[in-house]
Structures are given as C-alpha cells and as structure tokens.
Amino acid sequence: MKKNWLLIAGIALLVLAAVLMVNSANKPTPSTTTSTSNYTPVQTPVPQHDHSAKTMPAHFEVPPSKSSLGPTLDPNSFTGITRDAYRAVKEIPVTIAQLPCYCHCDKGFGHKSLYSCFEDDHASHCDVCTREALLALRLEKEQKMTPAQIRDAIVAQYSQ
Questions:
Q1: Mean pLDDT value across residues 131-139
Q2: DSSP per-residue letters across 92-126
Q3: Most CB contacts within 10 A, which of 36, 46, 86, 126?
Q4: Cβ-based neighbours of 139, under 8 Å, separated by 6 or more
C-alpha cells in the first residue's frame, strides 16, 4: 500500500513539474540585449470605422537615431523582391523603424518595429514585411512623404 502512495506522489510531482515548466516557457523573459537607445516602441490605437479595439503593432513614434539601430542582414544574401526590401531598409532605416509591421511579429517575436524584421531573416520569409518596406521606400522617395504620413498610409492599407 505504501508503494502505491509513493508511486502516486511521484506521478503528481512529475505532472506539477511539467505544468510549471510549460507556464514558465510561456512567460516573456527580459531581453538580454542592450541598446544605447532611449526610445521605446509604442502601440497606439488604430482608428477604425467600426470602432473596434484594434491596436497598431509596435513602432517608434519618435525617430530613433540611426546609430541606435542594430545592423540588418546584407541584402546581397537574398534575391529578387526580398533583396530589394533589405536594400530599402538599408536606405531609409530611421523611417522603417517608425513603421508598424502588420504581420504582428511584435507579439510573436517581440519585434519593436518593421525595422526589427530585417535584423534577422524574418522578413525574407514574410510577404507583409517585404511589401511594407518596399511601399515605404516608394512613398518616401517618389511621393516625398514623411515617416508619419507613410505610417498613416500603411495603417490605412494593412489594418483592415
């Protein structure tokens, strides 16, 4: 009888340990990276016609300094539209950092803005990131839009 109780107690402890491990894996951990930037990405409500409670993905409202941004991957590591998008980010990094990414990687990967998608290979696998960066470059270069105007255009196009 005593062996049965020990067996049950052991199983209960294993189940408890598994539950604790799963719960701790789901908690966000503090970032181990350091940054010289004092800028904090924000999430702002997106005006909606149906007045729903959607929020804009993370982005920098105040332009960060170019030197505070981490390096992006080399565009020449990619081909086609992906290479063009990585080049766009190299060309207008401060603008890209002020834009939200509508693949919602801020929630899934902790990205701070569209710029974060290009610091690793995330954007090379994501059509939303790629197209947003190319749109931003075109709006800035051809239509001479400011980052705030570009952000408004992206919100209008992608928040639907």
A1: 96
A2: SHHHHHTS--TT-HHHHT---SGGGGGSSSGGGG-
A3: 86
A4: 145, 149, 150, 153
